[in-house]
Design a protein that fits this description.
The chain is an alpha/beta fold. The chain has a single domain, classed as DsrEFH-like (Hypothetical Protein Ychn, Chain: A, 3-Layer(aba) Sandwich), CATH 3.40.1260.10. Helix content is 32%, strand content 20%. Helix 1 runs parallel beside helix 2.
Length: 143
């Protein structure tokens, strides 16, 4: 597939990316860099096959994150990017439950009072990462 980027007369090849996010929003710049990179890919017309949050990166899917007023709430911004662009976003189930990130199904299964995962992301397994890797042109890991 060929697409044109604004202000660029030459066609670019549209690539399919998988982004693996391993860093928590408050542990440095990796999660923020991944977010900015994802936005740039979409602006350039590329396709994000899947976002996969793993390890401490699952905290980026927490709808319970509260940040000081002078800081960006990265999980909320991730959620907006995922929803606005209809992206596939998977949160690793093993990493998530260890860190208190559960969707409504996991909350019921573990008899918890509420879910803590944005509905824009689904709780899943490494098989979903492997499947996405087999359908992409590039994979980048952050954190």
């Amino acid at each position: 597939m060929v697409a044109y980027v604004i202000d660029t007369p030459e066609p670019i090849t549209v690539l399919r990316y998988v982004l693996l996010i391993n860093a928590a929003p408050q542990s440095g710049e990796a999660a923020n860099s991944a977010l900015r990179f994802a936005g740039t890919l979409l602006e350039m017309g590329h396709h994000i096959e899947r976002l996969f949050f793993y390890g401490d990166g699952v905290i980026n899917a927490s709808n319970l994150t509260v940040m000081p007023q002078d800081e960006t709430n990265l999980p909320a911004v991730w959620n907006a990017l995922i929803e606005e662009n209809g992206l596939s976003s998977v949160v690793c189930v093993s990493s998530a439950i260890r860190r208190g990130i559960v969707d409504s199904a996991e909350a019921r299964r573990h008899e918890l009072p509420a879910s803590s995962c944005y509905t824009s992301s689904e709780i899943g397994g490494l098989g979903q990462l492997i499947e996405a890797l087999s359908n992409c042109d590039r994979t980048l890991s952050f954190g």
